[in-house]
């Protein structure tokens, strides 16, 4: 099993969710996060005053998938979240040893 964490632009969340649902990903966790990468924030002007925004608002999408659909899930996220501009985000893939469903005690892929 793999855990896929994707940091994406907030306005692309629905597109990413729909892309993952099309490949039959059952569940996901979404969090509002802030951070920066290579772009190191940006400046904005409000009422004539310029100020620095250091942390950019993003969405973090987490899904756990069986090994056999990992590449499809990564590709679906990339296709839905890519704009070609700085700040599109990152995808992190990690291997999971076990997953346990609290309600039933099911383990492994049966718990997904």
UniProtKB/TrEMBL annotation:
It holds the Pfam family P-II. GO terms for molecular function: ATP binding; enzyme regulator activity. One of its GO terms (cellular component) is cytosol. The modification O-UMP-tyrosine is found at residue 51. One of its GO terms (biological process) is regulation of nitrogen utilization. InterPro entries: N-reg_PII, N-reg_PII-like_a/b, N-reg_PII/ATP_PRibTrfase_C, N-reg_PII_CS. Keywords: Phosphoprotein. It comes from the Bacteria. PANTHER family: NITROGEN REGULATORY PROTEIN P-II (PTHR30115), NITROGEN REGULATORY PROTEIN P-II HOMOLOG (PTHR30115:SF11). Belongs to the P(II) protein family. This is Nitrogen regulatory protein P-II family. It comes from Pyrinomonas methylaliphatogenes. The lineage of its organism: Bacteria, Pseudomonadati, Acidobacteriota, Blastocatellia, Blastocatellales.
